[in-house]
């Protein structure tokens, strides 16, 4: 269909009795002649770099890691294999991440990006003001032990303020803190379903049903318990409440 429309657009001048003109594109690379051209080129480079790094930034600077790991543990604990599907869990994790990080992103935009677009501040000031809300968020959700680990590795002095903590230290400390928190929540999720599986296995053994897989029998009971306690509501509510 798209090819058909393109052919029609190319043939339309011929139908109207006009001489067709073939558009040309220039891909030449040349040195900037003015400072404005240099700034425009740098802006394009910065935007392309951010777009390229966007997926990685979402993983290491937001709560996406916590959400997606906990959802993976939940599916393993229920034993439902591919239900809910991975794509749905990742999409849900992205939606919740956007919900949690929206206030932080709004602060970053108002403090750094908006004044920079209005040409009120320069690159360095815009970068510092844009990253400050994210840095505050990450530090609030990072354990002091993890921060101290990377300060000790770098052999740096203890910071006095948030501004003294570089992003190169905050990001890895935040990531391992999120991993630890996600695994703790995953362990707590596994416990009740593990108990259900052990009870069902014990009942089957006492009844002499050795050949009947306990996993097959315990699966409906796990799903029933999760539905009765309104598991999604409890899980997502407590996940968001655990974020400072």
Summarize this, please?
By secondary structure, the protein is mostly helical.
Walk me through the structure.
The chain has 244 residues and is mostly helical. Helices cover 75% and strands 0% of the residues. It contains 9 helices and no strands. The chain has helices at residues 2-15, 35-61, 64-78, 86-117, 123-140, 144-154, 167-206, 214-228, 231-241. α6 (144-154) packs across α7 (167-206). The chain starts with a helix and ends with a helix. The model is unreliable at 1-22 (pLDDT under 50).
Q: What coarse outline follows from CA principal-axis ratios? A: elongated
Proportion in helices? over 70%
Topology pattern, helix = H, strand = E: HHHHHHHHH
Number of strands: 0
**What portion of the residues fall into strands of 2 or more residues?**
under 5%
The helix/strand class is mainly alpha
* Rg (CA only): 27 Å
- Largest β sheet strand count, sense and barrel closure: none
Low-confidence stretches: 1-22
Q: Mean pLDDT, nearest integer? A: 75
Distance between the termini: 50 Å
The number of helical elements comes to: 9
Question: What are its keywords?
Answer:
disordered N terminus; 75% helix; mainly alpha; single chain; 244 residues
């Amino acid at each position: 269909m798209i090819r058909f429309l393109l052919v029609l657009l190319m043939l339309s001048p011929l139908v109207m009795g006009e001489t067709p003109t073939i558009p040309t594109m220039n891909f030449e690379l040349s040195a900037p002649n003015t400072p404005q051209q240099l700034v425009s080129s740098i802006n394009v480079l910065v935007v392309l770099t951010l777009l390229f790094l966007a997926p990685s930034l979402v993983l290491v600077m937001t709560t996406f890691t916590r959400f997606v790991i906990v959802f993976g543990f939940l599916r393993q604990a229920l034993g439902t294999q591919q239900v809910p599907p991975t794509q749905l869990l990742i999409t849900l994790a992205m939606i919740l991440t956007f919900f949690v990080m929206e206030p932080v992103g709004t602060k970053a935009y108002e403090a750094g990006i908006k004044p920079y677009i209005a040409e009120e501040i320069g690159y360095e000031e815009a970068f510092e003001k844009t990253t400050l809300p994210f840095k505050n968020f990450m530090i609030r959700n990072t354990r002091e032990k993890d921060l101290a680990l990377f300060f000790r590795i770098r052999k740096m002095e203890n910071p006095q303020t948030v501004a003294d903590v570089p992003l190169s230290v905050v990001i890895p400390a935040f990531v391992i803190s999120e991993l630890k928190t996600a695994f703790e929540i995953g362990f707590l999720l596994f416990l009740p379903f593990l108990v259900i599986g052990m009870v069902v296995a014990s009942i089957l053994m006492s009844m002499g049903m050795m050949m009947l897989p306990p996993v097959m029998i315990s699966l409906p009971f796990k799903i029933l318990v999760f539905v009765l306690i309104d598991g999604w509501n409890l899980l997502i509510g407590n996940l968001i409440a655990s974020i400072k």
